[in-house]
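Researcher: I'm preparing a figure for a lab meeting and need a structural model of a single chain. I don't have an experimental structure, so a prediction will have to do for now. The sequence is pasted below. Please return the structure as tokens so I can convert it later.
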Amino acid sequence: MLILDILYYTFILVACFQVCYYLFFFSPFAFQKESSPTPKNIPISLIICAKNEAENLKKFLPLIISQDYPNFEIVLINDASYDDTMEVMESFAEKHPNIKIVNVKNNEAFWANKKYALTLGIKSAKNNHLLFTDADCKPNSRSWISEMTAHFNTEKSIVLGYGGYTKIKNSFLNKIIRFETLFTAIQYLSFARMGLPYMGVGRNLAYTKDAFFAASGFMKHMHIRSGDDDLFINEIATANNTNICVTKNSFTLSNPKTTFKAWVTQKKRHVTTAEHYKVHHKIVLALFYISQLLFWLSGIVLLSFLFKWEVVLVIMVLRFICQFIIVSFISKKLDEQDLLPYLPFLEFFLVVFHLTIFISNLISKPKHWK
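Model: Understood. Here is the structure written out token by token.
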């Protein structure tokens, strides 16, 4: 049949493309040994923007305060919370003089806009070097600040870190969330390693105040509700000014969503920013996703019709072997090895999930960051 012939050659083409993509873009990051620069102990302003995060602040802020670092302030931004967030911040500030509070109230021009709140917090920071995380994040060690900021130097004004999620036993949703996070990290860290940085995550991200104001802050995309991390990095990051930090002591961990509905809502908000990336970034990322979709679609159809199934099966296995080797090295770096046995199934689910989110966002886009 002509259709099956077309699918067969399409399958071979996209499988080859996938293997080449893994080898060219992901393998340099996978096989390169990581080194830890000497800690610089530069003054740091650690910035946390919180909206209705009273309980998380009680739980995780002590881990931030107890960081083994000689010179850092903590800028806590209360973004128009209506729970006890402000009271919790004030209780910590009374005991710790290095805590500064920025209380942001909603206004008509920047209603429910996290970027506005972050801008006020950045302006109030006394130090040039800024480190960002979220209120629901905990550092992986007491040397988190030291590990991340050691990657600043006279040329590097941006440091991209890894923000993972806490592992929950016997939870399929947890594995899906962590796999999606892992694969996103594989992409943005690999691209940054190659000199093509395109995004970072606000759970673990550092840049200088000078770089922020040189780019006029978030002004170019202030009208877009999300993207205070990835859109800003997409705008200013280059091969010359960006470093990555993936030592295990530099990670942060967050509590993942516990319901599928909540996670879908979160991902819908995150995905809306991708359409605003630079054109060449969108092309490279879109080619990878389209090749994934076509690989699974054409492979399943060909196997269903037993059309040259021996060749199709061999090609699928070879592609999975290549993927498994590279992903296993990266997952070891990012401490996500337990996901490896589920790799093909999780990848298939993620391909279908992203397609569903894309279609859903065409119908209705989220309007608030929280």
